[in-house]
């Protein structure tokens, strides 16, 4: 990891999953900003841009796909890599996430090494 920590915005509705994921990411050296709703995340994003954004599927105020779509269509956040984290492994759900603008998809429960590998791929410069 670089000397300067990369910031990950984690938006997850489930308190336990949010805290476990935050802990894992912090162990990997990431600075983590964790939120439980899409609107809170959009407010935070108005002033900052993280290295990557992880979006939970069933947010209390909007569906994860909707938030991914909003992020990908906003000029300020459209370049930030986004991964949808969902308990749904069905092809339709995965395709819907990618159609909304997600750069990756992670099915819960997940192997921590899979999270690490996917996030590294999202946050590393191309060709690194």
Q: Approximately what portion of the residues adopt beta-strand conformation?
A: 15-25%
How far from one another are the termini?
A: 12 Å
How are helices and strands ordered from N to C?
A: EHEHEHEHEH
Structural class assignment: alpha/beta
Nearest-integer average pLDDT: 93
| Helical run tally | 5
Total beta-strand segments: 5
Task: Describe what you observe in this structure.
By secondary structure, the chain is an alpha/beta fold. Helix content is 41%, strand content 19%. It has a 5-stranded parallel β-sheet, with helices on both faces. Strand 1, helix 1 and strand 2 form a beta-alpha-beta unit. Helix 3 (64-73) runs parallel beside helix 4. The radius of gyration is 13 Å and the shape is globular.
In short:
The protein is of the alpha/beta class. Helices cover 41% and strands 19% of the residues.
What's the helix and strand layout?
Layout: E1 7-11, H1 15-27, E2 31-35, H2 38-45, E3 52-56, H3 64-73, E4 82-86, H4 91-100, E5 104-107, H5 112-123
Parallel strand pairs: 1-2, 1-3, 3-4, 4-5
Helix pairs in contact: 3-4
Descriptive terms for the model:
alpha/beta, 128 residues
């Amino acid at each position: 990891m670089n000397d300067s920590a990369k910031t990950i915005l984690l938006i997850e509705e489930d308190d336990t999953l949010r805290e476990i994921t935050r802990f894992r990411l912090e162990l990997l050296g990431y600075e983590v900003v964790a939120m439980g709703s899409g609107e809170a995340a959009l407010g935070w994003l108005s002033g900052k841009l993280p290295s990557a954004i992880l979006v939970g599927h069933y947010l209390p105020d909007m569906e994860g796909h909707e938030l991914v779509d909003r992020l990908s269509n906003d000029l300020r956040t459209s370049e930030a890599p986004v991964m949808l984290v969902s308990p749904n492994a069905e092809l339709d759900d995965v395709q819907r996430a990618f159609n909304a603008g997600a750069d990756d998809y992670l099915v819960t429960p997940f192997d921590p090494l899979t999270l690490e590998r996917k996030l590294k791929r999202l946050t590393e410069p191309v060709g690194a």
